[in-house]
């Protein structure tokens, strides 16, 4: 086998994975790794969680797919669960986070069109954002490294500098603004958390000027921050929200949640999906949401996140030549580095058998399963410190 026949769009690590269990991952040569990537925040309950495995087995023996021309009981049940645990009144199911973002963008523009303000098409995003790889999603984030070479920008998409409140206020006041889209806690962009008072201010501005708020909680939602949804820390809510990743625990699924008001333009025929909301995904989604949305898991996130951040702050003091900053919220932790983050990731993997993810602003991200134990967290810190020591040795060699 080789990668010769795969489209070369990934810079893959030289690690051929075979199996996983909890926070452990094994390569085909038998090497065991501590996995603090968790499928980039997707395996919220770790690898092969028994509840999710059983849900797939049970559903696989009954029904895989029928498409959305029929009622799917599991779809209605998961939509009920999501609405009962959020601000939302309605849900559209997708196969991925980026498709959920696409639905969110269409929902926002359609809302204004349905209200006789078809000129409201402008969508404002922020630098450092990541909303996925579909065409609307890359334009919403407007990161040049993802949009370059794909033709002119889509009309009506604008990027603001993260934290530039004056520019954001002007965007809210513009009569052609449809929506503002953001991750309450940026993931790939370097784990920057939008201050809670700023989120509340955005809600106020959006209400005053008839603008919709879209939150992308694909990575920071589903318990990752220590609450089910990251925006709950600010005691406010968006109009539309994209969710995915841990909702399926590794099974492909996404969801666009919206208030009834925001979704009023999404009538029969304006949107759809062949596979979105299929019975297999719905079975896993129900099991994942029921398991994650419990005091046991959410309290564990707070406890483990507190320990990891405290210990990483200690490492920053001991290794100021390696660690610049520790940031993030809950178990979406960013560690900004002096050395190149990609080289650090490789050293951590090869010398400590610790898997961490990359991120913007020269960060590495720790995104372990939400049910990581304290013992595993201690092990993660030991291995992370080992990687810091190796890096220091190389810097002084």
Layout of strands and helices, then pairs:
Layout: E1 17-21, E2 24-27, E3 32-35, H1 38-41, H2 50-60, H3 73-84, E4 90-94, H4 97-114, E5 122-126, H5 135-141, H6 144-147, E6 157-160, H7 165-173, E7 177-182, H8 196-209, E8 212-216, E9 240-243, E10 254-258, H9 279-292, H10 295-318, E11 323-329, E12 332-337, H11 341-352, E13 354-355, E14 357-359, E15 363-366, H12 374-396
Parallel strand pairs: 3-13, 5-6, 5-7, 7-8, 8-9
Antiparallel strand pairs: 1-2, 2-3, 4-10, 9-10, 11-12, 12-15, 14-15
Helix pairs in contact: 2-9, 3-9, 10-12, 11-12
Please, could you describe this protein's structure?
A hairpin with a 2-residue loop joins strand 11 and strand 12. This protein is an alpha/beta fold and 397 residues long. It is globular. It has a seven-stranded mixed beta sheet, with helices on both faces. Strands 1-2-3-13 form a four-stranded mixed beta sheet. A four-stranded antiparallel beta sheet has the order 11-12-15-14, with helices on one face.
Output mean pLDDT.
96
Low-confidence stretches: none
Q: Approximately how much helix is present in the residues?
A: 25-40%
Radius of gyration, in angstroms, nearest whole number: 21 Å
In terms of structural class, how would the helical and strand content be classed? alpha/beta
Note the beta-strand portion: 15-25%
Q: How many helices? A: 12
Could you spell the SSE succession in H and E letters?
Answer: EEEHHHEHEHHEHEHEEEHHEEHEEEH
Arrangement of strands in the largest sheet: 4-10-9-8-7-5-6
Total strand segments? 15
- Distance separating the two termini: 38 Å
Outline type: globular
| Biggest sheet features | 7 strands, mixed
């Amino acid at each position: 086998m080789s990668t010769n026949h795969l489209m070369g769009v990934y810079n893959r690590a030289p690690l051929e994975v075979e199996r996983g269990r909890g926070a452990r991952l094994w390569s085909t040569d038998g090497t065991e790794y501590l996995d603090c990537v968790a499928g980039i925040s997707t395996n919220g309950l770790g690898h092969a969680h028994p509840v999710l495995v059983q849900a797939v087995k049970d559903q696989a023996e009954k029904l895989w797919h029928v498409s959305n021309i029929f009622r799917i009981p599991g779809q209605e049940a998961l939509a009920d669960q999501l609405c009962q645990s959020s601000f939302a009144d309605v849900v559209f199911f997708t196969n991925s986070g980026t498709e959920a973002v696409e639905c969110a963008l269409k929902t926002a523009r359609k809302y204004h069109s349905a209200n006789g303000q078809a000129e409201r098409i402008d969508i404002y995003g922020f630098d450092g954002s990541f909303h996925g790889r579909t065409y609307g999603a890359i334009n919403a984030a407007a990161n040049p490294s993802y949009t370059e070479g794909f033709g002119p920008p889509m009309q009506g998409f604008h990027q603001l500098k993260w934290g530039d409140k004056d520019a954001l206020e002007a965007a809210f006041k513009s009569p052609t603004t449809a929506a503002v889209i953001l991750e309450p806690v940026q993931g790939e962009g370097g784990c920057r958390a939008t201050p809670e008072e700023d989120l509340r201010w955005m809600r106020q501005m959006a209400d005053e000027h008839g603008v919709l708020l879209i939150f992308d909680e694909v990575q920071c939602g589903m318990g990752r921050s220590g609450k089910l949804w990251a925006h709950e820390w600010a005691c406010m809510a968006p109009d539309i929200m994209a969710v995915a990743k841990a909702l399926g625990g590794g099974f492909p699924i996404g969801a666009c949640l919206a208030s009834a008001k925001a979704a009023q333009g999404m009538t029969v025929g304006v949107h759809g999906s062949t596979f979105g909301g299929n019975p297999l995904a719905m079975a896993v989604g129900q099991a994942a949401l029921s398991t994650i949305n419990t005091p046991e898991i959410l309290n564990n996130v707070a406890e483990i996140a507190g320990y990891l951040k405290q210990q990483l702050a200690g490492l920053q003091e001991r290794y100021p030549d390696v660690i610049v900053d520790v940031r993030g919220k809950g178990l979406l932790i960013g560690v900004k580095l002096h050395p190149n983050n990609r080289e650090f990731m490789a050293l951590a993997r090869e010398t400590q058998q610790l898997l961490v993810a990359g991120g913007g602003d020269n960060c590495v991200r720790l995104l372990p399963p939400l049910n990581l134990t304290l013992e595993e967290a201690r092990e993660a810190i030991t291995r992370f410190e080992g990687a810091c020591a190796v890096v220091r040795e190389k810097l002084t060699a």
